[in-house]
Amino acid sequence: MPNDVRLLAGLGGAFLLGLLLQFLGCALWHNWWPMLTAFVYVLVPMPYLFFGSGGGGSNLASSWQDAGKFLVGFSAVAAIAIPAILYHAQKIALGALCMELLAMLILGGTVLAWQVLSEAEGSSPFYY
């Protein structure tokens, strides 16, 4: 149990660090254009929530799941592309771009770690 609490605290800390970098990327350069990626972070899981839980082994359910996976991938690429396009258009500084990309990596790594740890073999460490 103590390891589970430390693990959960570490994931929470990493998530908060990613959010902090997201806000600092905007606040330090007095430019809130990079906050557009925050909308993408909200949109990324939506196709999976709508299309990913389809039951059955039919081809129709499989094609909806594939469409959901495609939209999740598209949204994840947009999380990288939006800051890069803003930097290329000279709307944000290089430091803001680096902070936004680092925030995306930390937030994405936190979500992936949560998924791997919650789907581990046997009982999940987070659900009692």
Automatic annotation (TrEMBL):
Highest rank taxon of the organism? Eukaryota
Task: Please verify whether the record's keywords include Membrane.
Answer: yes
Q: Where, subcellularly, is it found?
A: Membrane
**One Gene Ontology biological process:** late endosome to vacuole transport via multivesicular body sorting pathway
- Membrane topology of the entry: Multi-pass membrane protein
Give the chief site where it resides: membrane
Q: Which residues cross the membrane?
A: 6-25, 32-50, 70-87, 94-117
Keywords carried by this UniProt record: Membrane, Transmembrane, Transmembrane helix
Annotated Gene Ontology cellular components are: endosome; membrane
UniProt key word Cell membrane: no
- One Pfam family name is Vps55
Q: Which family does it belong to?
A: Belongs to the OB-RGRP/VPS55 family.
Q: What is this protein called?
A: Vacuolar sorting-associated 55-like protein
- The organism encoding this protein is Chlorella sorokiniana (Freshwater green alga)
Query: Lineage, please?
Result: Eukaryota, Viridiplantae, Chlorophyta, core chlorophytes, Trebouxiophyceae
